[in-house]
Design a protein that fits this description.
Pfam families: CARD. By secondary structure, the protein is an all-alpha fold. It is built from eight helices and no strands.
Length: 296
């Protein structure tokens, strides 16, 4: 048997508020986890335990935020302001502004890790400030209630009961003030962490700029050296090419001289053979014939 909800259902929220949520639903489905908001909404009596359980039962982030938005549409006019408060309290300041149409909806969030950390911390600080303001108003209201109560019960309630009621409210006030002090300390810690991140970011940016300048200088020097070596190599190749052309001309001349000498040698051999050939009716006087290369 299902548990009976502790908070009565209030009916649909205002049409204008529902339209704003509808316009921002796709953006919220991409960036908000519904279970991050249930504790605040439950504490502010916007949703009950059954609603909280239903939202947190979603398997994916998109399912959980869809379940939550569907429930809030049927939780009366307070659901809209409660949703904005829950978003800001839990670090979704940007989403709350989107719903209120204060910022343009972008298809993708910023992906710079350092800026995302800054934004998250700023949202958390803003959320804590809202909580402080909320509790401050509550404390002020409690003070008013105490004054009214004093006037109402002064002549109708025994002194002992008045003291008990006074002690009860003073205890409540002290608890609220202690809670505000804790929240202030948390804000101070967040602000210190934010400042440290700013300092680290500035230091890292300076280091990266120095490294970039050093690499740029090395690149310029390497490029200059490369161009210089390239120019020297081109000059050397041109000189070698010129020298090779000179050698080719010399080889061509030597080859021509060799061809001429070869031709002269062949002509001399032919003349020698012609002189030493045996003629009919004449004795062969080999002893008298001399090769052309032995002639003087």
């Amino acid at each position: 048997m299902a548990k009976v909800p502790t908070i009565p259902r209030k009916g649909p929220m205002e049409a204008e508020d529902a339209l704003r949520i509808q316009k921002s639903s796709a953006y919220m489905e991409a960036h908000v986890d519904g279970r991050d908001l249930t504790a605040t909404l439950y504490q502010d009596l916007i949703i009950d335990s059954d609603d909280k359980e239903h939202v947190e039962s979603g398997k994916t982030r998109k399912d959980r935020i869809r379940n939550l938005l569907g429930i809030l549409r049927q939780r009366g006019p307070r659901a809209y302001s409660g949703l904005l408060m829950a978003l800001r309290t839990n670090g979704y300041e940007e989403i709350a502004n989107v719903i209120e149409e204060k910022e343009k909806i972008y298809s993708k969030p910023k992906n710079n890790d350092m800026h995302r950390v800054f934004g998250r911390l700023k949202d958390q600080v803003a959320g804590h400030n809202i909580v402080i303001h909320k509790h401050g108003k509550a404390i002020g209201q409690h003070r008013v209630d105490i004054d009214e109560l004093k006037d109402r019960v002064h002549n109708h309630v025994p002194n002992g009961e008045v003291v008990k009621i006074k002690n009860k409210y003073e205890k409540m006030l002290k608890e609220k003030e202690d809670e505000m002090q804790k929240i202030r300390r948390k804000i101070e810690e967040k602000e210190r962490a934010l400042q440290q991140l700013r300092n680290d970011f500035t230091e890292e940016r300076s280091r990266l700029n120095s490294e970039l300048d050093r690499l740029k200088k090395r690149l310029e020097e390497s490029t200059e050296q490369y161009l210089k070596e390239k120019e020297e190599l081109i000059k050397m190749m041109e000189a070698q090419k010129e020298e090779l052309n000179t050698h080719r001309e010399e080889v061509k001349e030597v080859k021509g001289e060799v061809d001429d000498m070869k031709k002269m040698f062949l002509d001399a051999v032919k003349r020698f053979d012609a002189q030493t050939a045996i003629k009919p009716g004449k004795p062969n006087k080999k002893s008298e014939a001399r090769p052309p290369w032995k002639m003087r």
